[in-house]
Amino acid sequence: MAAADTSRGYKGFGSFHAEMSVEDMVASVAKHGSMPVSVHSPQSVLDAIEPFMKASCKQPGTAEFKADNFYIDKNWTFVNHGAFGGAHRLGMQVAAAWREHCETQPLQFVDRQLFAAYTYALWQAAQHVGSSPSHMVFTPNCTTGMNAVLASTDFSTKGVYMLDIGYGSVKKMTQAYAARMRSSTQEGGTCAPAVHMQHVPLPLQEGWQRRLLQEVEETLHAEHTALAVFDHITSNTALVLPVQELVQLCHRKGVPVMIDGAHAWGSTPLDLDSLGADYYVSNGHKWLCCPKGVAFLHVPDPDLRAAVQAPIISHGWDHGFHSSFIWDGCRDYAALLAVPALLQWWGQQGAAAQQHCSSLKEQAVLLLSEAWGTGCMAPLSSYGPMVLLQCPGGVLGGVPVEPQAHAAACTAALDACDTWQDAPVGPYSSEHAKMLQDHLHFQCRVEVPVKCLNGWLYLRVSFAPYNCMEDYEVLRDAINTIVQEGGVQ
What does the pLDDT look like over 422-441, one tens digit per residue? Predict the structure, then answer.
């Protein structure tokens, strides 16, 4: 294909030689549903994709499937995909091909090919999550997108509303931005607290979603709230929150809302334009199994998009929503450019993988619950790709909790849930959680996070396409052995 005539001046920001500006490319794709310029596809990238598309569909959960598609070490029992994911081999190899292609002629790639390839990848990602490409940008992680939103929000007289089961770093972010803006603009007088942290008592029983919505309805006040922030799937507790209802509730009260969907992309179907959240962020490195460095920020309202700027100011600043995020200095874009190939693979294998994970979750929870005489922190229907299972008594040698007494306390805890109050506080601490997790890691080669909630220990167990029942049998036996040997000392 002959090179396009670009003699009529630069298109967009800086001195890049792209055929069209990023803003115009994205707008054209959104309007016409096709790329307005050619997208260079290096042969090395096509060669990296082909074997994965031609390979016979091996059953998820088998050793062959795991070896063909993931790098997870077979010498570990890895049931913690929810932490930082586990990249798919296809995404890693396609990213490597893009990376090497860039270095064969760096200026040509960055100056003339990158923006079109980026726009194509963004378009494919937007289709996957039910969005117009005009409404979203790629970011390196959820943290970047959330910082951009918080920096654009006026907290001078109003604060943030969130649940205390939200992610720890988000609590720090909201507190920092709200308090910083408050201190720089407020001189005496009174105003709303910087962050209203609504308590959610644990554990939870059937119907907790209805009660949660009632609590938010009663405690969320527009006159005090500049922004409400909710998880789609919580991190510590692994709960799938009723985000559609929460968004509608916030909007009825006139409160803008941001959804932290860090665990959502790839684990649950998304239709973001229909959801209607003012801001939505999600990661690709977790359940979509992208290489690290893939996430997005979704902002459907044009006025809000105009107000949101990338945290790092560079050439694209003041040239539009997409321009401000696409170029924040020279960096590696390879992981983003691998997204279309991964989405193609998920299109072929996704249904089988999701069915495997769902079935595996039901079987494994039954196995572990029966073996330990405990249960989940909430009804099984409350969970997506992870569950929170209570540890049996006796896992800590220095904590005198007998299994029978522990089971009685668990029953009392569930009874307490009927009144939307915390269960009786248990005897454990976060130090005990670390001791148990360290023992499982170093002595058992089992990777699973241990959470201390309201004084009780829980395991947050993940269910990924490469996991199999043997993984959970190993976990069961490891915990049983710990108890039989008198607990971790």
Answer: 888 889 999 999 999 999 99
